[in-house]
DNA sequence: TGCGGGCTTATGACATTTTCATGGCAGTTT
DNA sequence: AAACTGCCATGAAAATGTCATAAGCCCGCA
């Protein structure tokens, strides 16, 4: 499924519930907690696609949560939108320095937050925001769950789909089999690394096109990468 | 044409009349009252599609109206747009927390409110904002509650109708069984996900047409989508 | 330059597991 | 009574994870 996973850290329960409701209505998958420590646990258990973080929360402070998220390898690149009180100019600055991607000052309308979230996701991972991505002659429409090459639709299984989607989100970059397992199969999957080879083969077969070259590059003793065209 | 039902709660009679006039001109069906208690009665008698609520009204306060609307089952999901005075930052916060969907600060132009209303309705119930929807060779008339394919009317049950309507409001898009349950059966319904399959089958059967292909696409391990033609 | 060994990847086959379509059925609602 | 709903059992189809084996690549050495 293509619903982006949000982690909402907000200790005002009324606001939290409202936002949870709104976001789920918009097709996001939301987990919420008022507690900083718990947020860190949740984030490490199942890496969210984006974190919405209230600055003033119980337990660990917002800034500390932010910092720790950045420190953990699995969450280091997860975008963070922080919510601040109007006066706390100071926090805002520190927040951005600490690595928040955007901030919103209370009070804000849910629609405003929705827009920011969509914008950040679009910037960081276009496919999550429902935008089609193109890499070389491949075009992927995440909303329709379709992949086509030179106008012709390709037929692939679920795993191959997730795999090519991941590659298309990070073109040219080489991923080890371990990284691919984490990203595509999910962290902690106990699967033979060699199995990745098999799926790469299946993917290659699925996207093979009469004259077009194979866009998947094998990097010996390192992994695989997707090359444009 | 379908006319969305608005409930306007505003005690400035000049403004109220102006808005009523404008909205009716735009094809909405409007009921207005300056009084909070009466608003609640009206809302429960005939559930509106959207409520426009002034924060500073006589009788029960705006925030209380908002809260009670949310508490009543029949009005719990009706979107609310609230109108606030410029300075009342505080109210705004509480309003959003209480469950308003959007707010507008006085003074505002009627056109601005019209735009917000249209946007909210489009988000919540696309069919309300529109006339008939066409997707491929299917044509749905939400007012008449009818679906036809290639000119021939189709006969379907209530659930199948809601299902195809939802699909037609979002053509091509893949929905997971969970999303379909939320959208068609209502959030929180405790229904077996596999039951969706059954209704998909019934829907397919109902819209089957001699030579026309099946417009419902099964996306393995993801869900279903409606494809034009 | 040519060759062979050692290591890495590609491929085809296969047993298992998932996932889906379908028909039937009993309980409700209209 | 007729229509509708939700769920289960069943069978079929698709997808998945592993192996064994073939093929390819890199490197040192003659």
UniProtKB/TrEMBL annotation, chains A, B:
* In-chain residues carrying the UniProt-annotated modification 4-aspartylphosphate: 54
Q: List the keywords (alphabetical).
A: Activator, Cytoplasm, DNA-binding, Phosphate transport, Phosphoprotein, Transcription, Transcription regulation, Transport, Two-component regulatory system
Which cellular compartments is it found in? Cytoplasm
Query: InterPro entries from the xrefs?
Result: CheY-like_superfamily (IPR011006), OmpR/PhoB-type_DNA-bd (IPR001867), Sig_transdc_resp-reg_C-effctor (IPR016032), Sig_transdc_resp-reg_PhoB (IPR011879), Sig_transdc_resp-reg_receiver (IPR001789), WalR-like (IPR039420), WH-like_DNA-bd_sf (IPR036388)
Write out the coiled-coil annotation as residue ranges. Answer: none
Domain OmpR/PhoB-type, residue spans:
130-228
Q: Which Pfam families match?
A: Response_reg, Trans_reg_C
Q: Which SMART domains match?
A: REC, Trans_reg_C
Gene3D superfamilies, from UniProt?
A: 3.40.50.2300, 6.10.250.690, Winged helix-like DNA-binding domain superfamily/Winged helix DNA-binding domain
Which SUPFAM superfamilies does the UniProt entry name for this protein?
A: C-terminal effector domain of the bipartite response regulators, CheY-like
Question: Which positions fall inside the Response regulatory domain?
Answer: 5-121
For this protein, the record's NCBIfam families field holds:
PhoB
Please report the name of this protein according to its UniProt entry.
Answer: Phosphate regulon transcriptional regulatory protein PhoB
- Tell me the organism: Aurantiacibacter sediminis
